[in-house]
Amino acid sequence: MASVAAPVQQEVQGRSLWDDARRRLFANKAAVASMIVLALITGLSIVMPMMWQHSFDDTYNSERVSCPPPNSLGMVWLFGDQNEVCPNAVGKGHIFGTDANGRDLFIRVMMGGRVSLAIGFVATLVALMIGVLYGATAGFLGGRIDNLMMRFVDILYALPFIFFVIILMVVFGRNFILMFVAIGAVEWLTMARIVRGQTLSIRRKEFIEAAEAAGVSNWNIIRRHILPNVLGPVIVYVTLTVPAVILVESFLSFLGLGVQEPFTSWGVLIADGKDQMESYPWMLIFPALFMTVTLFCFNFIGDGLRDALDPKDR
Amino acid sequence: MLRFIVRRLLGAIPTLFIIIVMAFFLMRAAPGGPFDQERNLPPEIERNILAAYDLDKPLYRQFFDINTSVCSAQYSGADAAALAAQKLTLRDGKYFDENDRQIRCLGGYFGKLLGGDLGPSYKIKDFTVAELIADGAPVSAALGISAILLAMTVGLTLGTFAALRQNGVGDYSTMTLAMVGVTIPNFVMAPILTLIFGNYLGWLPVGGWNDGAFRNMLLPVISLSLLQIAVISRLTRGGMIEVLRSNYVRTARAKGLPERLVITRHAMRAALLPLVSYLGPATAGIVTGSLVIEQIFGLPGIGKYFINGALQRDYTLVMGVVILYASLVLLLNLVADVLYGLLDPKVRYD
To answer: Which of A154, A155, A274 to mutate to test the interface with B (most CBs of B within 10 A)?
Structure first.
């Protein structure tokens, strides 16, 4: 959008790899819709706890019972009549009802989203940093060191990691930071493999040789040729790692090893909802819905990005 | 081929060893011990309990301990003087010290493990880990094997079906279903299925094992296999589409083979290859999934031992489950490699 006034001479616009990718990504309706929904969920999770009329850890009915969502949702047949179950909760704006302790479920789902998404992003960042550093080193050094480094990754791959994550959570207590690190440490392996493979194959390509012959400096080769080519698959894998991490986190929380009360995450909410689902199905349905939709969005965006960034398609 | 198998089996040993070491020391690093809850014990009794379970020794000796006098007595005839110096007595071929604790040639957790002994459970009284595992294994195995079989059958069928209708309605709907299966985790799917079929419709029991009755197995097996069905159908579809474009399939069609035979006899074989290498990850997935599925449906499998054991610091029980599951995953990875070699003539082992 550089010049609004039409230039006399229309210069031929070069289309970079990224322009092409963006165009293709935005042509993918599922991916675009997913991005909007995901932005919405993320935004709500961040903003709502600050402005919602209820707080996530306050109990709102003295009986400490779970109240169904208000009838205005039109699901009396599924959730029962709020007027009958909890006459004093009517009109208090518990749009998702309340949980078994009488806390507002909507805001708890939002808080859970905050935690789940935060863990998803931070742990992925950890995985990204370890993986890229490790993979790029192996790929650049090549030869025997590369062999050794990848052998190590192979061995780690064979370990049933979930057991170690569970043991770690037990060992160090349910520590927030540790959760990031533990999950990130599990997910970096694939990242390292991808980056290493990509670096290795690109280094041998003719255009790198050509650039070298033309006297381009090493740093510029890395910056202009290698990095953009490695970045594509890495971005795709990152979008697919975030939902995987959210899954691991909720898996742990589901087993009672994750986030601790009164804090919550989607996994914790789903676990609570599962225990109460016979009498209070909304406690399961709402958090499950939010988590599932989020996971779907990430998967669609990942698929869209893969299609957009994969040069084989051209 | 045999050399390959042997080499891979030997290669799995260090991996398994690393797993054992990591699990052992991580578990012991956890604050609290297995006998912490039993407060109000006189110190001497607590000391006795710790001694009975070897927990009073330094950590490395808890892991591995060699008593040379016992070893030499066992393997090259008794050296009475050395045994007497340690006040060891021989009863029924076993050596006991003055506190009546059995002393082994190879002691410590790893030493006993080498002798095939997983030790006693620290929390579930009067049971050895081996007994507990043998108790839960049939349930977990029935669950896991049924889930894998179901996933294979359904996944293969759906994948082939989708590939034959590439870009058609059948393809898109199958792959959308697969997307749902990949995305919705089993700990969400299982409660929702229970809610619908157990609570609302009342067709199936909501939990319990009931000696493996078909009705009780149905929901757990389905929830456990959904993810695998999705992955397998995706893999099959991908492999099938690629194979259907290949020259030999065209040849088979050109010589007038009926489509059914082209698919089953020619295409299917090559399309199965990516599936074979998925066998290892699939096992890992089923094992992981069974941890939650067993909990959700209240099944008496091995999964609960691991979670409860870890929370209660039942060191030996956790180790037993980890070793069992790790060996299972390693073994199936090996089986996958061997099968791959048998099916794909391009792979050479040397």
So the answer is: A274
pLDDT for A89: 64
Residues of B in contact with A160 (CB under 8 A): 19, 284, 287-288, 322, 325-326, 329
pLDDT at site B279: 81
Structure token digits, residue B267: 């295409």
Amino acid A190: pLDDT: 85
- pLDDT tens, B130-146? 899 888 888 899 999 99
DSSP collapsed to 3 states, chain B: CHHHHHHHHHHHHHHHHHHHHHHHHHHHHCCCCCCCCCCCCCHHHHHHHHHHCCCCCCHHHHHCEECHHHHHHHHHCCCHHHHHHCCCEEECCEEECCCCCEECCEEHHHHHHHCCCCCECCCCCCCEHHHHHHHHHHHHHHHHHHHHHHHHHHHHHHHHHHHHCCCCHHHHHHHHHHHHHHHCCHHHHHHHHHHHHHHHCCCCCCCCCHHHCHHHHHHHHHHHHHHHHHHHHHHHHHHHHHHHCCHHHHHHHHCCCCHHHHHHHHHHHHHCHHHHHCHHHHHHHHHHHHHHHHHHHCCCCCHHHHHHHHHCCCHHHHHHHHHHHHHHHHHHHHHHHHHHHHHCCCCCCC
pLDDT at A308: 82
Contact residues, chain A to chain B, C-beta under 8 Å: 155, 158-160, 162-164, 166-168, 170-173, 243, 247, 250-251, 254-257, 267, 270-271, 273-274, 277-278, 281, 284, 288, 291-292, 295-296, 299
Residue in this structure with the two tokens 């996971």, named with its chain if needed: A295
Contact A171 B30 (CB under 8 A): yes
| Strand, coil or helix: A207 | helix
**pTM for this entry:** 0.79
Would an 8 Å CB–CB cutoff place B6 in contact with chain A? Answer: no
Of A265-269, B138-142, B269-273, the poorest mean pLDDT is in B269-273
Q: Compute the nearest-CA separation of A4 from chain B (Å).
A: 43
Nearest-Cα distance to chain A for B69, in Å, is 36
Q: How far is B279 from chain A (nearest CA, A)?
A: 13
CB contact under 8 A, A166 and B296: no
A chain contacts of residue B14, beta-carbon cutoff 8 Å: 155
CB neighbours of residue B142 within 10 Å? 17
Question: Do B306 and A270 lie within an 8 Å CB cutoff?
Answer: no
CA-to-CA separations, A189 to A154, A194, A232, in angstroms, rounded: 9, 9, 17
CB contact under 8 A, A270 and B191: yes
Residues B215-239 have a mean pLDDT of 89
pLDDT beyond 80 at A69: no
Tally Cβ neighbours within 10 Å of residue B80: 9
The pLDDT of residue B147:
93
For residue A254, the surrounding DSSP H or E stretch is: helix A227-254
CB contact under 8 A, B19 and A281: no
**Chain-chain contact of B27 with A171 (C-beta, under 8 angstroms):** yes
The ipTM is 0.75
pLDDT tens by residue, A18-67 = 787 888 888 888 888 999 999 999 998 888 778 777 777 777 666 666 77
The whole-number pLDDT of residue A40 equals 93
